[in-house]
């Protein structure tokens, strides 16, 4: 089941997890801007043995992306 978490004052991330064929889980996160609900087109991934570890890694990747792009403040 997807869940949404806030990254910063504007961007948020929706995280979905699925089982991998070789074992463990993979989470996929779509980053979007909260206020207008506009998709940024950025998707990050995380893998782990449990759902919480896979989601934590995907959220960490989303935070890294957000920090790298927060200085430029795109026109979203």
Description:
- By secondary structure, the chain is α+β, with helices and mostly antiparallel strands.
- It is built from 1 helix and 4 strands, in the order E-E-E-E-H.
- Strands 1-2-3-4 form a 4-stranded antiparallel sheet.
- The radius of gyration is 13 Å and the shape is elongated.
- The model has no long low-confidence stretch (mean pLDDT about 80).
What does the overall shape look like?
elongated
Q: Sketch the topology as an H/E string, one letter per element.
A: EEEEH
Q: Main beta sheet: strand number and arrangement?
A: 4 strands, antiparallel
The helix/strand class is alpha+beta
On the 0 to 100 scale, the average pLDDT is: 82
Low-pLDDT sequence parts: none
Q: Could you estimate the helical fraction of the residues in percent?
A: 25-40%
- Strands side by side in the biggest sheet: 1-2-3-4
* Count of discrete alpha- or pi-helical segments spanning 4 or more residues: 1
The CA-CA distance between the termini, in Å, is: 27 Å
Radius of gyration: 13 Å
Number of beta-strand segments: 4
Strand content: 35-45%
Provide keyphrases for this structure.
single chain, 76 residues, alpha+beta, four-stranded antiparallel beta sheet, 43% strand
Write the layout of secondary structure elements.
Elements: E1 3-6, E2 11-19, E3 25-33, E4 38-48, H1 51-70
Antiparallel strand pairs: 1-2, 2-3, 3-4
């Amino acid at each position: 089941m997807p869940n949404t978490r806030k990254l910063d004052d504007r961007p948020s991330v929706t995280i979905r997890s699925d089982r991998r064929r070789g074992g463990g889980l993979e989470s996929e996160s779509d980053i979007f801007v909260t206020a207008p609900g506009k998709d940024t087109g950025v998707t990050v991934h995380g893998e782990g043995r449990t759902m919480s570890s896979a989601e934590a890694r995907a959220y960490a990747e989303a935070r890294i992306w957000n920090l790298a792009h927060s200085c430029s403040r795109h026109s979203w």
